[in-house]
Amino acid sequence: MSIRLAIHGGKPTVVYNGPHLIWPEITPKLEQAVIGQLHKAISIYDRSGIYEEFEEKFSHYHHVRYALGTSSGTAALYSIFVGAGLKEGDEIICPSYTFFATISPIFFTGAVPVLCEVQEDGNIDPNSIEKLLTPKTKAIIVTHMWGIPCEMDRITKIAKKHHLFLFEDCSHAHGATYKGKLVGTFGDAAAWSLQGQKNVTAGEGGIMLTRNKDIYYRAMLLGHFNKRCMKEINKNNKLYKFAVTGMGLKLRMHPLGAAIANEQFDYLDEWLKTKRKIAQRFDKAFSTMPGVRPAIKPAKSNPAWYAYVLRYIPEELGGLSIEGFFSALQVEGCIMLDRPNSTCPLNHHYLFKCPEKLFPSYKGKIKYKVGDFPVAEKFHKHSLKLPVWHDERYTELAEQYIEAFRKVTSYYVSTSKRL
Fold first, then answer.
1. What predicted TM-score, i.e. pTM, was given to this entire model?
2. DSSP state, 414?
3. What distance in Å separates the CA atoms of residue 371 and residue 362, rounded to the nearest whole number?
4. Which residues contact 32 (CB under 8 A, 6 or more apart)?
5. What are the mean pLDDT values of the chain's consecutive 10-residue runs (419 residues total)?
6. Distance (Å, rounded) from C-alpha 63 to C-alpha 177?
7. Which of 173, 184, 179 is closest to 144 using CA atoms?
8. CATH superfamily of 6-12+268-418
9. What is the Rg, in whole angstroms, of the alpha carbon atoms belonging to the chain?
10. Which of 46, 59, 65, 82 would give a disulfide with 228, using CB separation of 3.0 to 4.6 Å?
11. CB 138 within 8 A of CB 90
């Protein structure tokens, strides 16, 4: 009996009754947390109340002393770069494949982002880092893409050997571990996004962690002026004289966002257990399916599975384009299947081809072009992104998505054999 795809008039495989994903889930307990905060305070000037509660919880979970909530993950990253004192003349080694906001705050410091090739898993390639080092190199930043940890033992060794700052962008990787150690605890500072789609969300928000008091003080001065700085910066410290004004920006998280994140964070480990079970189902199914390869993860790592990124292998399905494969799966009912677009190799963005159009001081310093990072570009071109659900009630839906992939791949394998 021949297979009839939905795109050819057959019945769709995915017939799940209900939304394919509700995130974040607005529970009665979450509503109570927000309403309770409304009656306490909607503006907080120092590290007290819900700020203190959430930052202490996040800090204790990671066993890192200093935590600073911010208005976004981008602001958290910017706070790290300013906190570390990045300046014009410095260089920072960055992954060529990441969300652009990992790197774009560097432009506001005057330092030069030096893009580095990635591995087949989309994470920065440790073998390429040392080749890019110069006397101007001051730091390395890594992103744990899609929640999969980078090879942090090798990267940490490089940073220590060359006396460089090491920063981690953990925006996709809340609760991920590498060799039993939480990401965000390997380097000098780390940042997490708490944007609406993240594993822990504040709606909009971010948070940074550091063990380095100087980074923490300067990060506070960047966007948390006056009362917080006056209370926390030691009066004998040379930075205290700036406490009232800071650097003049306000980058605080909204108290209502902090209340949301604080409530959500309590469930992170529970959600990760379910996400990892569903990811294991994907691993098992896709490892034997033609046309796709399961997500790659380093040995002894435990990803956070912000998303599950498959690699498409067109030659195994008769040369079918990724656009054709994607369309067939969408019509089968895989409406949450995605092709990452704005998350792409940074050399594809105009900002990294001609930054001087927005930042005049960068004229002649950066001139990346399409083709500069073939591994990153191949990864992006052949990527398909699936959600990794956080609740057992989505297990049936995950199985239906797998069956849709099996149906489509089987059809095109049989078609290619007949040709």
1. 0.96
2. H
3. 21
4. none
5. 86 95 95 98 97 98 98 98 98 98 98 97 97 98 98 98 98 98 98 97 98 98 98 97 98 98 98 98 97 94 98 96 98 97 96 97 95 98 98 97 98 76
6. 14
7. 173
8. Aspartate Aminotransferase, domain 1 (3.90.1150.10)
9. 23
10. 46
11. yes
